[in-house]
Amino acid sequence: PPYQTDHEDANGQFECNWDYNDALVTADRHSLFKFTVKSLAEKRGLRATFMPKPFTNLTGNGCHVHLTLHDDKTDQNLFKGPNQDGLGAELLSDKGRYFVGGLLAHAPALCAISNPTVNSYKRISAPVTASGATWAPASITWAGNNRSHMLRIPDFPRVEFRLPDMSANPYLLPAAIMAAGMDGVDNEIDPGPPCDNDAHSAGENEKKSANEVKLPANLLDALRALEDDGVLRSGLGSEVVSAFLKLKNNQWREYCGHLTEW
Hints:
Blueprint: E1 4-7, E2 14-17, H1 23-43, E3 65-67, H2 94-105, H3 107-114, H4 120-123, E4 142-143, E5 151-152, E6 159-161, H5 172-186, H6 202-208, H7 219-227, H8 230-236, H9 238-256
Parallel strand pairs: 4-5
Antiparallel strand pairs: 1-2, 3-6, 5-6
């Protein structure tokens, strides 16, 4: 069960956290948690939603993943660097930095797995909400203890991946993250220097993010990136990726055939 629940940014929105564990146990907890919350709400005549962006003027629902990589024999945290007197990104080992590099390099394709619905892209790059912030990334960036970027390194040697939302498959998501991150480790992909700006501040963001790569603007862009990403196809399995792309492309076509006031 979650060890912490607190009221979040939007009306009736809550953040729930549970202790870390290996990827499979965490995926099982994720599935059970969503089922339990929806069932308990329904029994009381209420509706609980994990929709990425249920209201245009309120903050969306994320699924922030906190990541560490451990030695399978010693259980040592391989993201822990020699400098534990610093803050944020300074705490990471070389393997930790390379893992970050892999996530950045494959972020467009990862988007198809971490944000797999049409509605997901109403949360990403959303306009400022009633609270003054979206808490969702718009660009492929990393930073120290800064919640306005896609990847955050808190004051502890771990990586927070802030891109995913709760429509993601809880089993495909960690598998895709591992494939991307380990490609970074295996090929020593340099993430470059971390950002230090507030990405939610429009004026500052315009000045400092001229070279930043934007995340996919919609589901179709993300699906095309996944189709072209050999690392994720290999890591997840070609049959899995092909079936996923077929399903999601069908959903995109259904969306395009739906008439709205626009």
